[in-house]
Design goal:
Layout (H helix, E strand, L loop, with lengths): L8 E3 L1 E8 L1 H10 L12 E6 L4 H23 L12 H7 E6 L2 E3 L9
Antiparallel strand pairs: 1-5, 2-3, 2-4
């Protein structure tokens, strides 16, 4: 039996986990009332330049939330005319659960690739 490794490679990124909340599902279901979407706890992990603290990540997010908001909306519905037009950080926080993680560890031996 091989010994358990207690050291993993740290990736030079921090993570922001974004999960839709009920307002997003209400919005998408208003667009597609004949095929409603059930709420899910699945989310998206966004890797960003490494930050040293939760506070630094939250500051970054306050300045860049709209890029994530747009990506999330586009994943559900691509017609920008149906998107909320005046998106705010407060609205972003109502529509999504957000968790920030300053440390990302790589548990795999294979190389990380971008697609």
């Amino acid at each position: 039996m091989e010994p358990i490794a207690y050291y993993y490679d740290t990736v030079n990124r921090s993570a922001i986990v974004v999960k839709p909340r009920q307002p997003l599902f209400d919005w998408i279901n208003s667009i597609y009332p004949d095929s409603p979407v059930e709420a899910t706890n699945e989310g998206t992990v966004y890797l960003v330049k490494e930050r040293n603290s939760v506070e630094e990540l939250e500051k970054w997010l306050k300045h860049n939330y709209d890029d994530i908001f747009i990506n999330e909306l586009n994943d559900w519905h691509t017609d920008e005319n149906d998107w909320p037009q005046k998106r705010t950080y407060q609205q972003f926080k109502v529509w999504f659960d957000v968790e920030v993680q300053p440390v990302v560890l790589d548990l795999e031996e294979s190389e990380i690739r971008k697609y």
